[in-house]
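Let's sit down with a protein and look at its sequence and fold side by side. Please make up or recall a protein chain and show it to me in full. Label the sequence line and the structure token line clearly, so we can match residues to local backbone shapes. Go ahead whenever you are ready, and we will take it from there.
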Amino acid sequence: MNELKGKISIIGFSLLLLLVGLEAKAQVPTSQNPSIWGDSGMKMDTTFSVLPIREDDKMYQISIWRRIDLREKFNLPFYGTGGLKLGGFMRNVLKAVEDNELTPYADEDFTTQLSISDFQSNFWINEIGDSIFVRDLYYVDFKEDFIFDKNRSETKFDVKYIILTMPSETNSNAGERTIGYFRYKDFYEHFKDHPEAKWINYQNPSKNIPYSQAFDLRLFRSVVRKYTNPDNALIADMVDNSDPNARMQAYLKSLEFEYKLLDWENDLWEW
């Protein structure tokens, strides 16, 4: 009888340990380790994004389309050196495509891949068939989501894709033209492993960093061109084009939106 009671006690103690272990595992913050306890089944963007944010953790989200003008002083570390802009952003993306290490697409839905020859044609030839200089390609556009992650209680910019755009002036004043779309995750993974392609610190060349890190640190100045709205309209389309200062009005609206984002983030922590 004593032996039976001993076995029952051991079984009960083992069950208690098991239950305690289950409870401890259940309290693990699963978004920090998506492989734990079935969290891998949660929907998460693994195609475009490099941020491991679960869709269910996005308490607030708005999409933003931005433009980096490489000619601006703050963005010169991306532009390249000399009159030919050797080693700059545009040339390095072109090289990655030509080496078949980065895939360009023709549309923002990423349904149609561009061949290397088609991308080269988009890159080097303008509307009237003239060859251009790489220094005349200075628009880098991208789409990102501004997100509040409720699990970590922090806001983040989640870049989705990058667009190379030919300026209208370069395109014989025939309007802007898209050169190619790139998934941000592909861009990020490629350039973090190619140290020869760098954001150049002209004040301290020993601190040049990969493009992936420069985007992480947001070492660029950009202008908002569009944000989520019912008409899917550019900010430039929201102003009166007959106004002689329409471009300035669009720029001011862009700044207004930026300040609204800052106010929204600041108001999160006011009680």
In short: Confidence is low (pLDDT under 50) at residues 4-8, 10-39. The helical segments are 2-26, 76-79, 89-98, 116-124, 184-191, 211-216, 246-267.
